[in-house]
Automatic annotation (TrEMBL):
Signal peptide range: none
Protein name: G domain-containing protein
GO molecular function: GTP binding; ribosome binding
Phylogenetic placement of the source organism: unclassified sequences, metagenomes, ecological metagenomes
Native source organism of the sequence: marine sediment metagenome
Stretches assigned to the G domain: 108-226
Amino acid sequence: SQIRDKAKEAAEKADILLFILDGKRDLLPPEEELYFSLKKLNKLIFVIVNKVDSLSDEDKLGDHYRLGEGRIFAISAEHKRNLEFLKSSLLEVIPSSVQEEKEPEPLKIAIVGRINVGKSSIVNRLCGEERLIVSEIPGTTRDSTDTLIFRNKKAFCLVDTAGIRKLGRTRDKREKAGIIKAKKSIVRTDVICLIMDAQEFPTRQDSAIAHLSHESGKPLMIVLNKWDLIRKETGTSEDFKEQ
Ligand SMILES: Nc1nc2c(ncn2[C@@H]2O[C@H](COP(=O)(O)OP(=O)(O)OP(=O)(O)O)[C@@H](O)[C@H]2O)c(=O)[nH]1
Ligand SMILES: [Mg+2]
């Protein structure tokens, strides 16, 4: 239900909604319900049926036409079918002033670290809303997510990533893919922010990630999170700094 709430929140903030359906199976009653609840937001909704790989797949669509006032986009993301048509239809409805604004590329900051150290929590705090799902269950973030924040009228892109652990430690294919993507994010961003858990710091995995960051040649920021859980005495933070 956290996922559904996040989707609803995103829909409320958006100007145009892309409602994606699976063309390889029938329309499900909850999908239809969700569509009609989104319609109440009075926003432009594009109903997109994905996985329509061929013309014969397109002929099989029936129930899907119940949504979108009879206008649906039958596409195949994998086979790039009808994507150009979708793109030009989208461009038609986006006001031209929005298209023309050419802002400088925001600085990309990768938020990386071991699982459960609080990466997603930090992004949420920095953007001032509960944008990302946070939980005490390790391995919550499965994919990299970009979040734009503004400071002094400048845009920064925070890239939350999946917690990095040894690939051999998990059998979950999606988690593995997430870990590989997290490592790649170190390459595609401008600044690396390595988050560590102050209670467990520093672990071997922390050093491995620091090493990757160092090799990338990018500026590296080291952040010790969960500082509230540390018993502090005079000089505690100096001791940590030395370590
Ligand atoms: N005490 C304390 N708990 C924190 C702090 N930051 C995050 N947490 C908790 O740590 C847990 C993990 O937080 P997440 O933000 O989901 O951690 P993550 O690094 O994104 O985790 P994965 O996506 O699983 O890799 C949650 O239960 C948070 O509430 C902190 O500063 N102090
Ligand atoms: Mg996370």
